Every structure is written in structure tokens, then in C-alpha cells.
Amino acid sequence: MKISRRKLFKGATGLALASAAGASITHRASAHVDIDQEIVITMGEMFFQAAGQDAGAAITVPANQVVRLVFINEGTVLHDAHFGRDADLTGRKYNENLAAPFDMLEIPAGGEAWLTFTFTDDQKGEWEMGCFQLGHYEGGMVAPFIIE
Ligand SMILES: [Cu+2]
To answer: pLDDT tens digits for 66-93?
Structure first.
């Protein structure tokens, strides 16, 4: 899997990078990849909602394509996005992390950020996207994340 990650916060100029063997990293804000599909996902209390879908509805992405997930936090508190299976509500993470070694994205209230993934055939299947801020997953801030 290739990961290109750019993280933009309101008023911030910092660039956060995923760093890992095998990850393709976007080091410059001017770098670009061609995006096959973009999905805008609104975050709020307590939900993920993909554009054109109901809150909490499954988000389906194709394997072997460059997919950009744009997160917009329209809520009033910080939210995060983890991808995986088998939620660990004590450790506040998924026991099986879809995007390892990428961990998760945190977006402050009013913030926006995006992730670009290319999932592989062996990642096809049903996963979840969840927010592990205390009480959020439990409050329903989780959605099926399906790679097909
Ligand atoms: Cu949250």
C-alpha cells in the first residue's frame, strides 16, 4: 500500500508525514498524485458521513485506485479517524490496523485534512473507520469501510 498524507489545519502551516518503510510520502505541499476517486467525509458529534450518504452509512472504496479521503470536522470537538478491525475500547485503537504503520488522523474542530490511499487486493474486505476519542466510538462514531 502506498500512503501519501497531507494534513492541513486552519491557520497552521505544518505538514505531518507518515513515515514507514514501503510508504510513499508526499514531502512537499506542491507534490501531487493523480486522484482516481475523492470522497468527502464530514465528521461531527458523533458520526462520519460521506457526501451523498446517510451518517454512519458504509463507505466503499475501490482497491488498486488512488483514493483521497477528505475529512471535514464540522463538529465542536476534536475527532480522529482510525481504520481497522476489532475495536479495542481500552487501548482506544483497532487491534488490526488496516493502514499500518499509518496510525490515525486527528482533526480539530473546524479543521480539514485528507489522506490518499491505494489499497491492494489483499486488503479487500470489510473494515471500519472509527473515532477513538473517549466515548466517541461508543457514541456511534464508526462506519463500515469496505474495500472492493
Ligand atoms: Cu470523534
So the answer is: 999 999 999 999 999 999 999 999 999 9
Q: For residue 9, give Cα distances in angstroms to 50, 52, 62, 113, 120.
A: 20, 25, 27, 7, 29
**From ligand 1's centre to the CA of 55, what distance in Å?**
13
- Ligand 1 midpoint to CA 142 (Å): 9
Residue 22 pLDDT exceeds 90: no
Tell how far the Cα of 15 is from the centroid of ligand 1, in angstroms. 22
Question: How remote is the CA of residue 44 from the centroid of ligand 1, in Å?
Answer: 7
Partners of 129 in the beta sheet?
A: 83, 143
Domain boundaries of the chain, sorted by first residue: 2-147
Ligand 1 center from residue 121 Cα (angstroms): 29
CATH H-level, domain 2-147: superfamily: Cupredoxins -  blue copper proteins (2.60.40.420)
